[in-house]
Amino acid sequence: MVSVGLIGVGGMGSTHFKILKDLGIKVTAISDVDESRLAEYSKMGIKTFKDYTKMLDEGGFDGVIIATPPNLHTEQTVYALRRGYYVFLEKPMASDLEGARRIYDEARGKGRLMIGFTLRFHKLYIMVKDLLDSRLGKPVVMWHIALGTMPKTGWLRDKGVSGGILNEHGVHVLYQYYWYAGRVREVYADAVTITSGITVEDNVTVFMKHENGATSIFHLSWSGGHNWRRWGLTAERGRVTVDGYVDGDYMVSDLNGNVIEKGNFNESIIHAYVDEVRHFINCIENNERPIINEEDGYHVQQIV
Ligand SMILES: NC(=O)c1ccc[n+]([C@@H]2O[C@H](COP(=O)([O-])OP(=O)(O)OC[C@H]3O[C@@H](n4cnc5c(N)ncnc54)[C@H](O)[C@@H]3O)[C@@H](O)[C@H]2O)c1
Predict the structure, then answer these.
(1) Do the bridges between strand 248-254 and strand 259-265 make them parallel or antiparallel, or are there none, so unpaired?
(2) Cα of 163 from ligand 1 centre, angstroms
(3) Nearest alpha carbon to residue 231 among 119, 111, 155, 95
(4) Phi, psi torsion values for 213, nearest 5 degrees
(5) Which of 48, 75, 99, 272 could anchor a disulfide with 94, C-beta 3.0 to 4.6 Å?
């Protein structure tokens, strides 16, 4: 039976903990620098560590989930991979390209690193990918407008920690574009900061050309007062529109305007998180390479 260690049990790490528990996967060790968080887990009989290196040195688990702020990802992931663990690293791969390159170099050839680009496991995004492959053909233009507000988490506003909002949040969409249309050849982008007291961009606009000729457009804003989000694409043989991000009304039509699929998707994102963790566990059990790995993480970091 596979067991797991967790590094970072804040928002995302504690979600992973609940998912693992529900899946019946034993969490044998937890590391966090926040002692009050650690205390909750030691009450459950789990070994806790303030220093993640001690946890990884001591072992007693097969895989590690790392859910700490991005500027810590490089050191923690490289350390874990060197000790032979399977690693599920939360997105983004790192806070900068150099850090991502170090992870990539360590992970290459091992087949043990997974990066948490959740949309790969989200049923709406999977449905659209399947429709592209089966009926709609190659994407020609993909687009996404994401207007939101600055999240409360303090470290997100610090460029040195998060790597910026395109890195911290926009990577989900950049990964989706890469998944749908393949590697990116050129990127044009503009970033502006309106909110005072932050070192990250709060408005970013990206225009990309993929190697296969497809175009992707992405505008992400966190400086506004209300949320509004839409995405979609035009492909060789049809069109997709979604009135939302991970939920909302969607429509798929062919070039003549005949509706292929239409509906409202309202499944909680938690299902994608569960499938993501399940994939990681299956890879450990079967000694397989995760479907989202260092190649994907590094290419997305290059785009950022
Ligand atoms: N896949 C998704 O949809 C998704 C959603 C949210 C967050 N995330 C990612 O998860 C990661 C964590 O984000 P979060 O929102 O949970 O942040 P968070 O601030 O809520 O949690 C981070 C945790 O890491 C701990 N930590 C800090 N330094 C540490 C160290 N040296 N060793 C061990 N623990 C340490 C903190 O004490 C905290 O408990 C980020 O990379 C973020 O991008 C992914």
Answers:
(1) antiparallel
(2) 14
(3) 119
(4) 100, -15
(5) 99
Residue 33 beta carbon below 6 angstroms from any ligand 1 atom: yes
Token digits of residue 278 = 């399940």
Q: Which CATH class is domain 3-118+271-293?
A: alpha beta
Listed in order, the ranges of the chain carrying CATH 3.30.360.10 are: 123-267
Strand, coil or helix: 297: helix
Ligand 1 lined by 99 (C-beta under 6 Å): no
Average pLDDT over every residue of 123-141: 98
Residue ranges, comma separated, of all CATH 3.40.50.720 domains in the chain are: 3-118+271-293
Q: How confident is the model at residue 265 (pLDDT cuts 50, 70, 90)?
A: very high
Mean pLDDT of the chain: 97
CATH numeric code, 123-267: 3.30.360.10
Q: For residue 101, is pLDDT > 90? A: yes
| Ligand 1 pocket: which of 15, 32, 52, 245 to mutate (most atoms within 8 A of CB) | 32
